[in-house]
From TrEMBL:
<protein>
    <recommendedName>
        <fullName>DUF222 domain-containing protein</fullName>
    </recommendedName>
</protein>
Length: 77
């Protein structure tokens, strides 16, 4: 998969999260709230998968280490 396809997928994820964050849940029943909380938990547990794939890939790469935000990652830049 190429860079454009990957960034497009992340863009769609960002857009979907923006939509969900803007929803109003006031009219839902307690059962519906619980169902959606379960879905939020499932989504939250899935999000680290691509993050860990990226981190582990970078950790295996030779080259300098550099600080990027909150993490130190391998970089041959």
């Amino acid at each position: 998969m190429d860079w454009q396809a990957i960034t497009a997928a992340f863009d769609r994820l960002d857009a979907a999260l923006d939509v969900v964050a803007g929803l109003n849940f006031d009219a839902l029943t307690t059962a519906q709230w619980l169902t959606l909380l379960g879905r939020c938990e499932t989504a939250r547990r899935r999000l680290p998968v691509p993050e860990h794939q990226l981190i582990n890939h970078l950790a295996r790469q030779p080259g300098q280490r550099r600080r990027t935000g909150r993490q130190t990652v391998a970089c041959d830049c």
